[in-house]
Amino acid sequence: MDISIKAFSAEMGAGVIDLILPIQQQEFGVNIGFADQPDLNDIPGFYQQGAGGFWVAQDGDRTIGTIALIDIDGGVGALRKMFVGADYRGGERGIASTLLKTLLDHARAEGLSRIILGTTPVMAGAHRFYEKNGFQEITIDELPESFPVMAVDKRFYRLML
After folding, report:
1. C-alpha 67: how far from its chain's center?
2. First and final CA of the chain: distance in angstroms?
3. Looking at the predicted structure, is the pLDDT value of residue 58 above 80?
4. What is the pLDDT of residues 99-148, one digit of tens each?
5. Which residue range is the domain that position 13 belongs to?
6. How many CB atoms are located within 10 Å of the residue 68 CB?
7. What is the CATH number of the domain that holds 71?
8. Number of domains in the chain
9. Which helix (H) or strand (E) segment is 4 a member of?
10. Can you name the residues that pair with 6 across neighbouring β-strands?
11. Rounded CA separation 80/2 (Å)
12. Helical spans, DSSP H, in 3-156
């Protein structure tokens, strides 16, 4: 394996979509398509602004994982689009951990004080991963007004940096 984590660039767009949509739709049965996610059509405009970012894990030229950070002001970042292909999951590979470390290192360097995320109830593995990495579950009422809640988000987590 020749695994690398790189900041998103335009030529990665198709690979990102080809990774994310099947995980959402087929693996987890989330009723969401490309048209429901305008961020996927303008990753630089949605994520690579202010303290935000978007990173892609690749095995050679194959996209195997993603993670994104939205700068929502006030020293707060929203973690989005964390996906790792099924063949690359598991603690022994460390892809998800490396993606998260990349995002957290960037967030700290940018002076953010906390990271917040929303997820769906069906992604139990993701819940365990976030909790193992220090995220604490919070209620929707604890979210800052600037947090972009997605329709599928029903569980929320926060990590203080």
Report:
1. 4
2. 32
3. yes
4. 999 999 999 999 999 999 999 888 888 999 999 999 999 999 999 999 99
5. 3-160
6. 25
7. 3.40.630.30
8. 1
9. strand 3-7
10. 56
11. 25
12. 13-22, 43-46, 95-109, 124-132
Mean pLDDT of all residues in 55-61: 96
Q: What is the pLDDT of residue 31?
A: 81
The phi, psi pair for 134, rounded to 5°, reads 95, 0
Phi, psi (rounded to 5 degrees) for 101: -60, -40
The maximal CA–CA distance of the chain, rounded, in angstroms, is 43
**Per-residue pLDDT at 87 exceeds 70:** yes
pLDDT of residue 1: 67
Q: Kindly report each contact of residues 107-113 with a partner whose C-beta sits within 8 Å and lies 24 or more positions away, as own/partner.
A: 107/51, 107/69, 107/77, 107/161, 108/161, 110/50, 110/51, 110/71, 110/77, 111/51, 111/75, 112/51, 112/71, 112/75, 112/76, 112/77, 112/161, 113/75, 113/76, 113/160, 113/161
Mean pLDDT value across residues 36-53 = 95
Of 41, 24, 42, whose CA–CA distance to 33 is shortest?
A: 24
pLDDT of residue 75: 95
In single-letter form, the type of residue at position 54 comes to: F
